[in-house]
Amino acid sequence: MKVCVVGADGRAHVLAQVLGRTAEDVVVCPGSPGIPGSLPADPLDVDADLFVVGPEQLLVDGLADRLRARGRLVFGPGADGARLEGSKRWMKAVLADAGVPTARSGAFTEAQPAIDLLRQLGPPWVVKTNGLAAGKGVLVTESLAEAEDDVRAKLSGVAFGDAGRTVVIEEGMVGPELSLLAVCDGTTAVPLAPARDHKRAFDGDAGPNTGGMGAYSPVAQAPPDLVDAVMDRAVLPTLHALRRRGIDYRGVLYAGLMLTPEGTKVLEYNIRFGDPEAQVVLPRLSSDLTALLASAACGRLGDDPSFGDDAAVTVVCATEGYPGAPRPGDPIAGMAEAEALDGVTVHCAGVGAGPDGGLVTAGGRVLDVTALGPSVAEARRRAYEAVGCISWPGLHHRTDIAIDEQIAVDEQTEHDQQEVQW
Ligand code: AMP
């Protein structure tokens, strides 16, 4: 089977690698100078047996529909299902319809009623863009004044353009976070291994939200019945709520979860593989990813996927000032040294070709340094050793990716035994 992965980032890179274990041929469209098999073409002009669409914006814009209209087999929802990520307001309505526990919220196009709701709520205050904002449209703050200013900036269009002209105010929740990605065939779904990502820019979960600064899998802190509970109480009811709306959802349904003192709640749904969660979940797969995604795209999912015992950790290397505007064109050094280390793969996220043929920075998140190992602690050690090989002026990475997991395993926290409550 020939597979076309649509994307140009670290997620596209890891998808191509893991699909390449079993597919006859994999192209990445458009890809990048750092991703083998890249084909800088319009995916509509590419001939392949299966298309796997990575980026949410393309799905929201209906790429999967256009490919299907040409008779292509596609893994990725149409624009109707992609609204789950394209409109937080709509996502909240679907969650309510499906009876899925989530934070209470309100959606607003005017500042005053939004601010009135903020003033009724306690900290942390949460202000979200309704539309897509590359993971950066969520403010969580302990300052009511900052939240109010953020409402005005988002609604004015200054901060996030049209994505912010509707804002969603949410009740602030606290608790550890987890991601569970499920593969859906329109009617049913199978889970992948849970992962945890780190969304804030700086160590200690400080600074602004980003597209993601690192991730790890498995998550020992996940209660043992978490996967079954999330499938039964969130993913499958959501799939059925979509069907009731006439939506045949074939693709990833990614549940962002918070383990709150009142039980597990869905923070958000994404409609595609997480980036960088894909980098830690997919390499751990011991079953056939090509067959899994093709069967979902055909509407005929079979057995649950299986995972090996190795853990994976990925550390994102970003440009100075990320999530602010990146500085492109800095030469990247040390990738070969990093990849020579045991268990290490470097996934190219935002890279371009320099004048001398080497790779240069070309995005906020530049490289995802991923390591496999017999434990999260060892995978983490390997990943950071590899990060130490890599350099460009202003390279920024967090130093505490997966450290919470290491501490949790060391201390055997009570989360290990905790039951999932809803
Ligand atoms: P989202 O893109 O909606 O998942 O939000 C990005 C991040 O913001 C989440 O991973 C959480 O860390 C944080 N967040 C989102 N919603 C809430 C909430 N209601 N309460 C507390 N933190 C939140």
Helix content: 25-40%
Contiguous low-pLDDT stretches (5 residues minimum) are: 412-420
Number of helices: 13
The rounded distance between the terminal residues' Cα atoms is 42 Å
Order of strands across the biggest sheet? 11-14-17-21-18
Account of the protein in words:
The protein starts with a strand and ends in an 11-residue tail after the last helix. α5 (88-98) packs across α8 (226-244) and α6 runs antiparallel to α7. Helix content is 29%, strand content 25%. Strands 11-14-17-21-18 form a five-stranded antiparallel beta sheet. Residues 412-420 have low confidence and may be disordered. The relative contact order is 0.14. A hairpin with a 3-residue loop joins β9 (177-185) and β10 (189-191). With 422 residues, it is of the alpha+beta class. The protein binds adenosine monophosphate. The site of adenosine monophosphate (AMP) has 16 residues, from β6, β7 and β16.
Concise synopsis of the structure shown:
The protein is α+β, with helices and mostly antiparallel strands.
List keywords for this structure.
four-stranded parallel beta sheet, alpha+beta, single chain, disordered C terminus, five-stranded antiparallel beta sheet, binds adenosine monophosphate, 422 residues, 13 helices
Detail the topology: elements first, then pairings.
Blueprint: E1 2-7, H1 10-19, E2 25-30, E3 50-53, H2 56-60, H3 63-69, E4 74-75, H4 79-86, H5 88-98, E5 105-108, H6 111-120, E6 125-129, E7 138-141, H7 144-156, E8 167-170, E9 177-185, E10 189-191, E11 196-197, E12 200-202, E13 206-209, E14 214-217, H8 226-244, E15 250-260, E16 263-270, H9 277-281, H10 289-297, E17 311-318, H11 335-339, E18 344-348, E19 351-353, E20 359-361, E21 365-373, H12 376-387, H13 403-411
Helix pairs in contact: 4-5, 5-8, 6-7
The structure holds adenosine monophosphate (AMP).
The site of adenosine monophosphate has 16 residues, from strand 6, strand 7 and strand 16.
